[in-house]
Structures are given as C-alpha cells and as structure tokens.
Target: Glycosyltransferase involved in cell wall bisynthesis
Amino acid sequence: MQDNVKQEIEISIVTPMHNEEGCVREFHSRISAALKGMNTTYEILLINDGSTDCTEDIIRELSLNDPNLKGIMLARNRGQCTAIYAGIQESRGQYVVIMDGDLQHKPEEIPSLICEIRKGYDLVSGCRTNRGESMIKRKLPSKIANYLMRTTSGCQVQDMGGLSCLKGKLARSMTLREGQHRLIPALVYSMGGSVSEVPISAPPRFAGKSHYGIGRSIDVLFDIVMLWFQSSFKQRPIYLFGRISLLMFMVASLIMVWLLYGKVFFGEHMGTRPPFMGAILLYLSSLGFMSTGFILESLANTYEAVMGTKTYQIRETISQGIAEKPKN
Model:
C-alpha cells in the first residue's frame, strides 16, 4: 500500500530556504496555487538550511494547514547544493522541480516545464530571458560561465544554473557534491540523458538579500574545471595524468636521443649540457604525474565504494505540523 501511495505523486517541488522569512509565505501561496491549477498530485519540500531568522517557524506554521507541504530541517547550514540534494532524496514525485525560494523563479511557469518533460525528456531547464540584474555582477559572469560549461560538457543548454525539472528516479539516483547544483543539466547530459529548455522570465527577488557574492564566481570557475576534467576523461584521473606523463616522457626521450647523437657523432659531453638536466627533470615529472594519476584513481575507487555516505544530517521533518525525527 505504501508503494502505491508513493507512486501517486507526480510533481515534487524541492526548494532550499536560508533566511528567507520575507519570502516563505508568498512562495508557498503562489506555488500552491500554480500546482492546484494543474489538477495533479504534488508535494512541496521546503528545506530549511540552518536559517537563523523565522524561516523555520513559518514553515512549521504553514505545514499545519497544508498536507502537501513537508518541511525538512537540516541540523545546520550546509549550503544550497546540499540542501537541494537532501530535498531530492526525500522526494517521491515522478518529476522533481528544483527552484529557488526568493521568487526569482516564478511558480506560475512550472506548468511549461512539466508540459515539456512529459514529452519524454530526462531534464528540462528554464532559460531566463530579459534579466533585469546587473550586467557586471550577474549577467556577464553568468553568460561566460554558461558558455564555458557548454564548451566543456557538450551540453547545449543555455542557462544551466536556474530552474530545472528532472525525472524523479534519475534525480534521486544522482550524487551531488557541493556546487554541482549549477551543473545538473551537464551532469544529466554526461550520463546520456536527454535535455531540453523552455524560456522563463527573471523577476527581481521578492524580499530579502541575495546570498551570492564574488566568491561564487570563483567557485563556478573551479566547478567548470572539474566538469572539463570529468567530461574529457570519463571521470578517470589516470586518463588525464597518464597522458601528461606520457607526453613528458616522450619529450625527455627525444632530448636524450638528440644528446646521444651529439655524443656519438660529434663527441659532445652529455652530462654538462643544460638539455640533459632538463630531460632528467622531465623524466622525474613524468613519474610524478603518473604516480598522481594512480593515487587519484585509488581515491576515486574508494569514493565510489563509500558514496552512499550522506554529507548532511536531517534534524527533523515536519508534515501537517507533526515533527518526525529521522531514523538512525
């Protein structure tokens, strides 16, 4: 019977909340109205990511009168990606919609994503148009980051870090590490999934202050480098470091052959010439890169073995005002 109940939910809304007391009620009102208008079954998962304001109290209050609302209280602040991952793992819907709680993702545009993903796609991303944000602080960095992510991954989604909808089973099978919520379309594409886009609007934040700063742009750059690493070398470190090691070994060997030729035919000394020392350094560097590849390969295998370990802890979940402690 429990399995049948789980299968009845079509749409799961996963929304992280950190100090969003000014947005929670309005978000809940508008997302509830949008989903009720779709005449489908749904659940709303609000993940309180260690808020220090009244966000948690408001979620508890709203859950009293909404059986479709589930509050997930993390033990402490773990960041947006971890909060999203926790919500996905608690979801039960056939489709999982990931959206922000500041209403810069309009709840009224959820139907267009659901309509598109019902065509059989594994993921549908919302492409923001007519963004009214600062060109220097937000729009330009976003354009550059999206271009680099498309180039490195091959995924042609124009706007990867925004509103998205995934098939539920696929979403719950993914293991997201910190920062990878910005790469979800590229990750799905790299897994062989089909992706699509629909245009969405980009209204200003409803209330409160943005949590994004310059540090986020730096983090995105590192995420792109890691995405390139994974996409280009199939998540196998030995492929990358092995190629670098082989290249260094070949260059060093060519230098040695050239020096040996000079010694045999022209009587030139090998050990006193700078190229000889350069070749030795290249041989040592080649050995170092190969060793690094083996070490990272071993670490990757170890990670795969223990990847079931969660990076967050749920303090309690709230449904219809009733608190439930997680099972150990």
